[in-house]
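stage 2 :: seqdesign
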């Protein structure tokens, strides 16, 4: 059963239980294809691949979901603490050797996190006047949930596969992530591999503590 973390006027924040992961996987794929391509039919193999990955790594992950007052999903994000064994999506998709990447950084890394499964149902939000006025709050709440696990140590790092437009939005929010490979087409959009550090997100995190509910 999903665990309620906090409730707002128009939506609530939850920590997802394993039993919700298939429904969440469907939400992530559907939302991204609808938003980027206007698609109404979604690749079943991508839904299954996504579900398999998040199911197998659930024990090392924190999966956050935002639900509206009807209990329907409006946003998701996941933080996974890497165990140095399980292959990360960024390795498969971009052929990036995470161990080698971390070893080549100019400092000794502490923890390595993967942030993924980011999705916001823009269609649902834009159709609800109350949610529409809270779009930025919804985005910042999800980001703070994920980054909360990275921030405490400046030598923590996180890796992510990020839609190129979202990457630009993050820069506007002062989360200036470094692109570490060539882009590919994924989930309906141009996607880049990126990374940042606990030190690199300090300015954003400390400026948005009022969005931290974890």
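stage 2 :: out
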């Amino acid at each position: 059963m999903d665990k309620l973390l906090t409730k707002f006027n128009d939506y609530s924040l939850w920590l997802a239980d394993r039993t919700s992961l298939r429904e969440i996987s469907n939400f992530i794929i559907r939302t991204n294809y609808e938003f980027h391509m206007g698609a109404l039919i979604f690749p079943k193999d991508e839904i299954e691949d996504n579900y398999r990955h998040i199911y197998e790594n659930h024990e090392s992950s924190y999966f956050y979901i935002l639900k509206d007052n009807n209990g329907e999903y409006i946003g998701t994000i996941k933080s996974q603490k890497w165990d140095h064994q399980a292959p990360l999506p960024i390795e498969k998709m971009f052929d990036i050797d995470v161990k080698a990447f971390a070893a080549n950084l100019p400092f000794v890394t502490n923890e390595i996190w993967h942030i993924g499964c980011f999705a916001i149902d823009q269609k649902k939000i834009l159709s609800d006047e109350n949610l529409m006025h809270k779009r930025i709050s919804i985005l910042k709440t999800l980001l703070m949930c994920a980054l909360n696990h990275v921030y405490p140590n400046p030598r923590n790092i996180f890796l992510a596969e990020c839609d190129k437009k979202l990457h630009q939005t993050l820069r506007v929010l002062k989360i200036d992530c470094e692109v570490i490979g060539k882009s590919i087409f994924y989930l309906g959009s141009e996607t880049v591999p990126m990374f940042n550090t606990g030190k690199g997100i300090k300015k954003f995190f400390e400026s948005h503590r009022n969005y931290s509910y974890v």
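stage 3 :: structure notes
- The chain has nine helices and nine strands.
- Strands lie at 3-7, 11-15, 61-68, 73-81, 112-120, 157-163, 178-179, 184-186, 189-197.
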